[in-house]
Amino acid sequence: MSSSKTAATNNLEAFWMPYTANRQFKQDPRMFVAAKDMHYTTSDGRQVLDGTAGLWCCNAGHSRPKIVEAVQKQVAELDYAPAFQMGHPKAFELAARLAALMPSPLDHVFFTNSGSESVDTALKIALAYQRAIGQGTRTRLIGRERGYHGTGFGGISVGGIVANRRTFGTMLTGVDHMRHTHDPERNAFSRGIPENGAEYVEDLIRIIQLHDASTIAAVIVEPVAGSTGVLIPPKGYLERLRKICDDNGILLIFDEVITGFGRLGTPFATDFFGVTPDLVTTAKGLTSGVIPMGAVYCSADIYNAFMTGPDHMIELFHGYTYSAHPIACAAALATLDTYEEEGLLTRAADLAQYWEDGLHSLKDCPNIIDIRNLGLIGAIELEGIAGEPTKRAFSAFLKAYDEGLLIRTTGDIIALSPPLIISKDQIDELFTTLRSVLHAID
Ligand code: PLP
């Protein structure tokens, strides 16, 4: 090996880190080397309380025995099996269990490897379905400002984050966006679902009038927008959205990559809000973050619309080498067992009030302009430093890490979403640490 290419284990340069300030990180690295239950262990031997379930994904906590054991067993037994024209039993078992968990009629499951792939898959199923039922003019997809649907071209097309869209604009045709629902003037410091703003859904009517319903295939929204700072839908908004879609032959897609698997105190946000979409995207909590995996739900009506033509023909030209990967399936089955045995898919409902009270007790800290919460999600919006957006929240992130707490920031918003196993004492610890962080930063 040429000496110039010899890998130096202490060289941080080669890894181009995702969604990271690479230069800042590499000057002052923050490394996790182990994790157990509610805590990470850092490379300098400290314990860090996980206030974000990794990236909103480790809903069962870390290194849970049943999941670890299932993965270890599976890798030794069946390491890989193709899902194209072949199967393995755990894929079917998992799909059936997932279908049973979701309200009807969402009873068919397509496997992916991430939230981004789930979103692209759902958008493609929506387009192909409209074509299959003779509605081939319906090719437009509608998203929402401040929506995050991952990083694939489909996801950033319907997504509403400027930084994700501006550089790749030429690819993003055939989409439009509803306005977001965030209304701090009327809803700041709301507890739970905000009262005001259901009328923002009427923006979809404007879009329908502009393009005509016959050109629109689907609308995609996060029931609760997570990555852009926890934007909770106003009372009545999602119900009205469902009705407008129904009245106009438009499919409704819920992106439940964050809200799925217990985050709101019900298995899915569709249970929480009592609104059933036509397609649901999931990932993250499906395997509690242990192995990459996503799943897209649809109804038998949608599935059956494809089941025409000669039996030997492929019905949907879509799939991934690692769809229904055996190790991911084993991890997901063990995750579902863990959720079931420990009541984790409804645990957030029991903790929600305690969480809300703790979160809102920070209202008197410096520079707070809004606090919002739902289930085991919380957001603290800070007033940005003039001319230096994101800096104040990033300082809070760094300080919290030093103080033994992992938080996540987006813009000048701190987002919190701990594993669903968090105890009341740990909730107290989280907010006590955050209080001292918020007082310590400029
Ligand atoms: N959709 C939503 C709502 C998300 O929050 C995310 C990730 O945070 C994604 C999609 C993308 O998921 P992934 O990063 O697994 O591709």
UniProtKB/TrEMBL annotation:
Pfam families, alphabetically? Aminotran_3 (PF00202)
Q: Name one GO molecular function term.
A: transaminase activity
- Family matches, as InterPro entries: Aminotrans_3, Aminotrans_3_PPA_site, PyrdxlP-dep_Trfase, PyrdxlP-dep_Trfase_major, PyrdxlP-dep_Trfase_small
Q: Which cofactor does it need?
A: pyridoxal 5'-phosphate
Keywords from the named record: Aminotransferase, Pyridoxal phosphate, Transferase
Q: Which family does it belong to?
A: Belongs to the class-III pyridoxal-phosphate-dependent aminotransferase family.
This protein is called what? Aspartate aminotransferase family protein
